[in-house]
Amino acid sequence: MSSTTTTEEPAEKRPKVMVQQEETPTRCQHFVQRKKRYCKMTVGRGKQYCGEHEPQRPPSTTTTGDESETGTDRIPCPLDPKHSISATKLDKHLRICNARPVERPVFIQPNVNAASDGEDDNSQSEGTAVNERKLADVPQDELNGLIAKIEAIYSGDCRINAIEEMILQHAAFREELTNPSYGPQTLKHLTQSASLLGIVEREGFLRRDTAFVEFGAGKGQVAFWLATVIQQSVKDELANTKVVLVDRASHRHKQDNRIEDRQIVERIRADIGDLVLKKLDVLRGSKNVVGLGKHLCGGATDLALRCLVKAKESSAGGNGEYLQVSGFVFALCCHHRCDWKSYTGRKFLLDRGIVRDEFELMVRMVSWAVCGTGTSREKRKVQLDGEDGVKYGLTRSQREKVGRKCKRVLDLGRIEYLTANGFNSQLKQYSKSEITLENVCLIGHFNKSS
Length: 450
What we know:
The chain is α/β, with parallel strands linked by helices.
């Protein structure tokens, strides 16, 4: 009688058993108008909407154990009605909601830099109502009259009609600026930062016991290179020198995160308009404070200037130390974002017959200097090559000149404000116009004898 031997098949030859996978969760069916797309949140089994967008239904008289089925579980958040929450988790949500009130730091005082003492005295004069008119709606004779005022101020002041070049480069950038892997955009920003730090060094701000405050720091490129200079300095040459970054937003991929010595850098999240420098603990022990800014947009420049003016020679508290503002270097830009409330040169303009509604027209005209034709791409396509179209009674080249003069007159108002508050200031071209059309910086030194 023969016996049969059963041999087990190798695992790789066995028939594969098909395992039924769960269906991929579907996406929420709510269309987000602001983003022009559907919500990307996944939904529960058998549902069409995520918890945030679940339509509210009338309360059900039946009790089922699952309150979400009644449609009454989600309610608007008491702190921010823009989003909804589960009513059963209200207490927990109120403790972690991003809109919850937080304790205000001592260095924050709302609108402390919005206007200086006494500046409001003249702001109630004629023309204080906000002018919402477009330039196209302004009568030509009125526009010509304002342009004549601007040209008279510009031509009568040598500080702004002949700005000298001060294009420098700090030694720390030598290798970076010759790196062949960098594209034009990266080199553009490096070139500007190199010149600004070269100016900082030439003006004598780069010394020991100094705190550099970069206003509107963004991703912190200038602060990163300044910290690099400090770290590479000879021992004790820049001892007790630090960099403080101020910005109201929290940015990703910040350059200051790459700074190795964390003792010399600190980032402060604050609006410049609310910042009280003398209450910053990080500035204690610094004998000098220097302001920095690379392209402080419009009104942010005025807020930063007023912040420094208010802080000069203010007691920093403790051990008889004082907060001494030595000066600043600010790269200027975006004059079209200046506003009457924060602008530091209001008295200067009012004394020269330029009232608020004319100021509002000026900040519209400054865009002529940097925005090309001011027409849409479609209209530019149909224009003839080389055509210098007339608009507002001016050719394109004439409008560019007027726009530049508007910028410089606004800057002159800032210089007058600084002079009245003990600063010697001047304008310099820190970059070629091929690098950036916003190539003027404002440099200031505090005059201790004033």
